[in-house]
Amino acid sequence: MDDTEIVIAPVNLAARVDEALAVQAVAFGLDAAEVAVRRHIVLRHLLSPGARAYGATTPDGRLAGFVYGMPNDRSHWWSTVVEPYLRAEGNAEWLDGSFVITELHVHPDFQGRGVGRELITTITDGSELPRSILSAIDTESPARGLYRSLGYTDLARRVHFPSAPRPYAVMGAPLPLRRRN
Ligand SMILES: CC(C)(COP(=O)(O)OP(=O)(O)OC[C@H]1O[C@@H](n2cnc3c(N)ncnc32)[C@H](O)[C@@H]1OP(=O)(O)O)[C@@H](O)C(=O)NCCC(=O)NCCS
């Protein structure tokens, strides 16, 4: 990665949930009401079996970005929403033996320096599962470009989550993630 001053390491995200959501709010766009809802969800997610989080920290201790995820559990809300879409495409088996990237966000001040790439490769390298899945807004975004470059392909598109106005794509990749040549 370009910026050697930013350190990627495991982070106690529950203790730093407000800082993380402040990063997500500006990176992804969340209003105060959405942050309040997300706060409960993130704290619950972090109690899930196998949940892990990594942070990107500046020399002065600021959180520049974070990622967290967990082994997929078919009983989790996210999995139940995406399952029929994956099944329709013959891809439902991706819900088993998969590490889910639940959130990945880098503060705009620190984007484009390889931080996002290092966060997602570091957390997935720590998983013994054979593959990874995630959902991203179904548009040509930097996130979609990053995921494709790591080997993620589309497993389902135009996926609608209740309460989310925009459709998502579900993507999956074999682990370990592909490295740049
Ligand atoms: C997606 C995100 C996490 C990437 O983090 P980042 O630190 O900026 O990404 P990196 O610097 O590691 O870039 C990795 C790759 O992303 C893609 N990428 C990054 N910025 C891009 C841009 N402006 N346009 C197109 N692709 C871009 C490229 O494929 C890049 O690979 P390269 O370095 O070989 O060019 C960050 O843009 C972000 O937080 N976005 C807003 C929140 C979000 O969408 N999160 C994901 C939710 S699913």
TrEMBL record:
<protein>
    <submittedName>
        <fullName>GNAT family N-acetyltransferase</fullName>
        <ecNumber>2.3.1.-</ecNumber>
    </submittedName>
</protein>
<dbReference type="InterPro" id="IPR000182">
    <property type="entry name" value="GNAT_dom"/>
</dbReference>
<keyword id="KW-0808">Transferase</keyword>
<feature type="domain" description="N-acetyltransferase">
    <location>
        <begin position="6"/>
        <end position="176"/>
    </location>
</feature>
<dbReference type="Pfam" id="PF13508">
    <property type="entry name" value="Acetyltransf_7"/>
</dbReference>
<dbReference type="InterPro" id="IPR016181">
    <property type="entry name" value="Acyl_CoA_acyltransferase"/>
</dbReference>
<keyword id="KW-0012">Acyltransferase</keyword>
<dbReference type="GO" id="GO:0016746">
    <property type="term" value="F:acyltransferase activity"/>
</dbReference>
